[in-house]
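Example protein as discussed:

>
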Amino acid sequence: MAAKLKTILFLSSCRKGASFTGEGSWGDRVGKAMKEILEEEGLEVSLWDPKDSPYTILEQPLHLVPDASGFPQWMHDKKKELEEADSFIICSAEYNSALPPALTNMLDHYPPAAYKDRPVALLTYSMGPFGGCRIQINLKAHVTELGMVPVPASCTVMSVGSMFDEEGNLTDDRVKANMVKQAKELKWYAEALKSYKQIRPVPVPPKKQ
């Protein structure tokens, strides 16, 4: 039996506790729904939640210091997990028409080479009627700069507070259908890119003289 494709699902919010929008982060619910769909598609999913990892505000990323041995071991382990992943999916909130700082801070701790040439799916959500669509362009630019390859199918979850029941289960059939479509497309691109790399490796830029 072939090994399962490895996918990292990034959450974006550090919100905890009660607020007028509800308990904790809505991203936890959106991420849970997508994780279940990805696993139903046969992918092995690792959840990266900025609430669960002690990232400090970025001072220097791993690849821009002469000696990275001073970084904690868990960051080196995370870097290795990035390098071994076959695909990525980002589940992002929209904060004041901008990307959540916890998300970009987490991503930017690692070198672009750790993400390069793997597909990424973009899933955004918001409390309002736009579902995070105002950050889709900025998010696509950010992941492309890191070397990821965005898949065509994007997904937005509008009015996220009305999409889940009291147990945190997704109840909207349209949103679920869009998530399933995105998961299937991500898997297809992950399989295609991984297979083609075995035939023709990714070109390496020539070293500067």
Remarks:
- Residues 145 and 167 are 37 Å apart (CA to CA).
- Residues 173-199 form the longest helix (27 residues).
- The mean pLDDT is 92.
